[in-house]
Amino acid sequence: MAHRTFRKSAILAALISAITAGDAASAKETLPAPAWTPLDFATFSQELGATWIPVPNGDSGAPRQGWLNTADGFFTREAHVAYSYTDAGPGDDAEAALVRFNYPLTRRLWAGVEVPFYQRARVGSYIGDIRLNTLVMLAETRNVSINAGVGWRIPTGDTRLGGDEFTAQPQINLWTDVGRGFSIRGRLGYEFGSRAVPDAFVLNATIGQTVTPHAKAPFGDLTWYVAGNYREATTGLGNSFVSITPGLRTHVGGNLFLLAGVEFPVTDTRQSFSQRYIVQLVQGF
Q1: pTM
Q2: Which residues lie below 8 Å from residue 85, measured CB to CB, with a gap of 6+?
Q3: Hey, how many other C-beta atoms are within 10 angstroms of the C-beta on 212?
Q4: Separation of first and last alpha carbons in the chain
């Protein structure tokens, strides 16, 4: 009798344990994602390995989304494919296509890689130099993000299209919501060149406004913006270069975005190009 009682107790205990474990697993699966909290300098070491949490829009609704020919002071988790056509005069037009992958390793660390897998010009078609960006988030509130890092150009391209060059660009990047759906972003950097690429001071400043909600696809997060870029060579025979890029971005659905813009040089176009047309698809995940 005692043996049967012990056996029943053991079976009952096993059932209770299994049910409890199932409830615990179910509860674990339904736990809400961690809430986003601001980042500051004082808590840097504590968040160095913390899992990345998407940042909510700014107080006026401005989202942290990438634009063409701009710098991002924030982190994104996206895959990109882009195409550009450059009009540089009769017989000198050029095309390029690239893929880009951006991934936040933690709340404080981010990496992005860009592969120009196709470049065509008068001299032929070749792969371009791969670019790798490594960034650290310095501070972030709902309305401001500031990161810093280094952009690396890896010599994988062909010299006939200006490739096969190694450069490093230390940089600091800013994003801020300034109200009414407007956001401002920019970059201050210095590029250490190589044999054919002079050292240069690099500056980017961009303003834009998001005018529709994210859910209004295919015109969700509809945004206009104007990007300005300035590059001043500090060594060699490099020239100053200034351009502006008006552009649009829209959420077409399923966290897929379409971007389009046209870059116009402000400096002497005889030394650069007339205009560059850019189209890009971005898939967030």
Answers
A1: 0.87
A2: 93, 94, 95, 276, 277
A3: 16
A4: 61
What is the spatial distance between Cα 23 and Cα 17, in angstroms, rounded to a whole number? 10
Query: Which tokens in the block code for residue 270?
Result: 């005889």
Q: How far from 40 is each of 3, 37, 73, 212, CA to CA, in Å?
A: 63, 10, 14, 30
Count the Cβ atoms, other than its own, within 10 Å of residue 23: 10
Q: CA 68, 72, 78 angle in degrees (round to 5)?
A: 75
**Which residue, 150, 151, 152, 147, is CA-closest to 136?**
147
Phi, psi of 283 (to 5 degrees): -115, 115
**Residues 77-108 pLDDT 10s:** 999 999 999 998 877 899 999 999 999 999 99
Q: Is the dihedral of CA 164, 165, 166, 168 positive or negative?
A: negative
Smallest CA-to-CA distance from 76 within 50, 58, 107, 102 is with 102
Confirm if 86 and 97 have CB atoms less than 8 A apart. Answer: no
Q: Between the CA of residue 167 and those of 150, 159, 193, 239, 243, what are the distances in Å?
A: 10, 14, 5, 17, 21
Alpha-carbon distance 60 to 40, whole Å?
22
Q: What is the pLDDT of residues 174-211, one digit of tens each?
A: 999 999 999 999 999 999 999 888 999 999 999 999 99
pLDDT in tens, 230-268: 999 998 777 899 999 999 999 999 999 999 999 999 987
Contact residues for 257 (Cβ-Cβ < 8 A; gap 6+): 65, 221, 249, 250, 251, 281, 282, 283, 284
C-alpha angle 74/77/81, rounded to 5°?
110
